User: What shape does this take?
Amino acid sequence: MGGGEPMQRLFETMQRMVDGVPTGFKRYLYPQINWENKMLGLVGPRGVGKTTLFLQRIKERGSAEKPLFVSADNLYFADHTLYDTAEGFLKMGGTHFFIDEVHKYPGWSRELKMMYDMLPGLHVFFTGSSVLDIEKGEADLSRRAPRYLLQGLSFREYLAMRHGIEMEPLSLDEILGQQALLPGIDHPLPLFHDYLRTGYYPFGVDPDFDMELGQVVVRTLEVDIPSFASMTVSTGRKLRKLMAYVSVLSPFKPNFAQLAGQVGVSRNNVEEYLLLMEKAGMIAQLRTKVTGLNSLGKVEKVYLDNTNILYGLSDGSENVGSVRETFFFNQMRVNHKVTASPLADFEINGITFEVGGRSKGQRQLAGAARGVVVKDDIEYGFGNTVPLWAFGLTY
Assistant: This one.
C-alpha cells in the first residue's frame, strides 16, 4: 500500500477528533506515562477516558511529532492491515502511531510485535480493554510494551473536571494527618454525594448518563469479556445474571458453589467469571493478605467496582453502608494494596480502617496496632477519625 487517498482520510478523521478534544483537564495518569517508550499500552474499563488521553497528547505535542491516530475498528482495516499502515506511515516520515481499541482488530498482538521488531523508527501506542491480557496474546508483548491501567475519576479529579476546584493529590499520610481541605469549599458533602452517583465516569454530566452507564455494563459483559475469553453469547448472558446477583448482594462473602448453582455453571467457572468481571471494571474483589510473591489471597468479599455502577443497578434501593465501603475500596486501591482486615473492614500498610456513618464508634479497632475510623456525613475529622470524602483525594 502507498499513502494515497484512503490514508489521507485517516489523517482527516484524526484531525477532526484532535480539534474537538478539550485540553483543560488531564487525567491523573497523563504525567505518569513515559512517552519515550517505543511501545506502550493504555488499558482500562470502558468509558474512563483512554481515547481522550491519547488525543490530548497529540494536540499538546502539535507538529513536534508526526502522529497518526486510528481506531482499530475503522472500515479502512477491512482491506488494509495495521502493520502495512504503520509501515506506509513510517515511510511518509511518521513517528508516532496511536491505535485506539486495538482489541477490535483480529491478530492484533502478532502485528504489534512485528511493528516493534521491524519498524525501529516508530513509536506505537495502543489502547485496549482492561480484560486485554497482553501476556496471553499470540505474541508476548509484556516485555516490549509497558501497560498502564487507567481507572475512573477520583473525587479529586471530579472536582477539577466538573467544578474547576484544583488541588494536588494527597498521600495517605497527609489524609490521616487531617490535611484534606477543598480550596474555596466549606461544605464538601453535597459535591461528594453528587460524585458518588455520577462522578466516577467522565461522561457523568451527559443528560442520558444512566442509560449510557447501563450500556457500558451490558456491552462489557456481553461483548468485551466473551470476545477476549473466547466465550459464547450464552456465556455473556450468564455473566449478566452473575452481575445481577452481585448487585443485589454486594458486598458479600462469596459462596462459589451456591453462585454456580444460581447461574447454572461450574464452581470453577464462577471464579473465572468473577476474575474477568473484576479485570473489566465491573466488580472488585477484596482478598486476604498473603505473604508469597504474586499469589492472590482468598476472596473475602465481592463488591461492585464503583459507586456509580452501584447506584445505577440498585434502582433506589442502595445500602448506604455498601456505598461507603465501595467508595473507600475503589479509591484506595489505585495507589495501595487494600486487603481484608481480620478486625474491621480494610487494611492498608498495617493500618486498620473501619468505615461507617456519623455514629460509628471505635469498638472494632480495639485490637488494632493502628486504627482509623472513616466516617461518612462529617465534614472534617479529628484524631483518628477521618471523613470518608478525604480518601477520594489520593490520585
In short: The mean pLDDT is 92.
